[in-house]
Specification:
GO biological process, one term: thiamine diphosphate biosynthetic process
InterPro entries: Aldolase_TIM (IPR013785), ThiamineP_synth_sf (IPR036206), ThiamineP_synth_TenI (IPR022998), TMP_synthase (IPR034291)
Pathway: Cofactor biosynthesis; thiamine diphosphate biosynthesis; thiamine phosphate from 4-amino-2-methyl-5-diphosphomethylpyrimidine and 4-methyl-5-(2-phosphoethyl)-thiazole: step 1/1
Strand order of the largest sheet: 1-2-3-4-5-6-7-8
Pfam family, one: TMP-TENI
Number of helices: 9
CATH architecture: Alpha-Beta Barrel
Structural class: alpha/beta
Enzyme class: transferase
CATH topology: TIM Barrel
Order of helices and strands: EHEHEHEHEHEHEHEHH
Length: 212
């Protein structure tokens, strides 16, 4: 059975001057269960973002792991990424789909039920419950969905729902049990003592969650 690309998404950005180590980290995760990688780089010059995306795609393509670009449709098209992820302030999903074409993936962050109802009519591949729990990697959160919020979104969504924000091996099973079809993680892997082991654990939990 084909595993969807959004089952276990690594959201990532390198530390300055550590690109080589970062690429090794991503490659490690990509061989141990991650099903897609989302590059999220804020407030960086376009040339630097292009460099990162190009290097990252060169690592992921041989492994057949899709590269998703956060909030930069032009960059996604330039490097021929597998798709893009946009937020509520990043433009019209219909226009984004028109730019990307029908062959690219497109995801959208959801921060309220009215946003979800609007998203139901949009040409998306998944929506992200943002955020499920509080997280130090994003401070401007409007909503903390919690388990009950993930359930509400999953019941009303026309698209697969993934959870993002504060998700780790200790709560992944519950997130999946409440209707999520996948998770996106940052700290759970970037701060893991052993990223390979954590990848395998998270992948097993997400796979098991969609079978229950």
């Amino acid at each position: 059975m084909h595993t969807p690309f959004y089952r276990l998404m690594l959201v990532t950005e390198p530390e300055p001057d550590h690109i080589g180590a970062w690429l090794s980290f991503v490659r490690n995760c990509a061989t141990q269960g991650v099903t897609s990688v989302q590059l999220r780089v804020k407030n960086a010059p376009r040339g630097h973002r292009l460099l990162l995306a190009t290097h990252l795609k060169a690592v992921l393509d041989p492994l057949h792991i899709p590269l998703i670009i956060n909030d930069d449709l032009a960059l996604a098209l330039t490097v021929d990424a597998a798709g893009a992820h946009i937020g509520q302030t990043d433009g019209d999903p219909f226009k984004a789909r028109e730019q990307l074409g029908c062959s690219k993936y497109l995801g959208l962050s959801i921060e309220s039920l009215p946003e979800l109802l609007q998203a139901n009519a949009c040409p998306l591949d998944y929506v992200a419950a943002s955020a499920v729990f509080s997280t130090p990697t994003k401070t401007n959160l409007r909503t903390l969905w919690g388990f009950s919020g993930v359930r509400a979104l999953s019941l009303q969504s026309q698209h697969p729902v993934i959870g993002i924000g504060g998700i780790h091996a200790g709560n992944t099973a519950a997130v999946m049990a409440h209707g999520a079809q996948g998770i996106a993680v940052i700290s759970a892997l970037h701060q893991a003592e052993n990223p390979a082991v954590t990848c395998r654990d998270l992948r097993a939990l997400t796979d098991r969650g969609t079978q229950s």
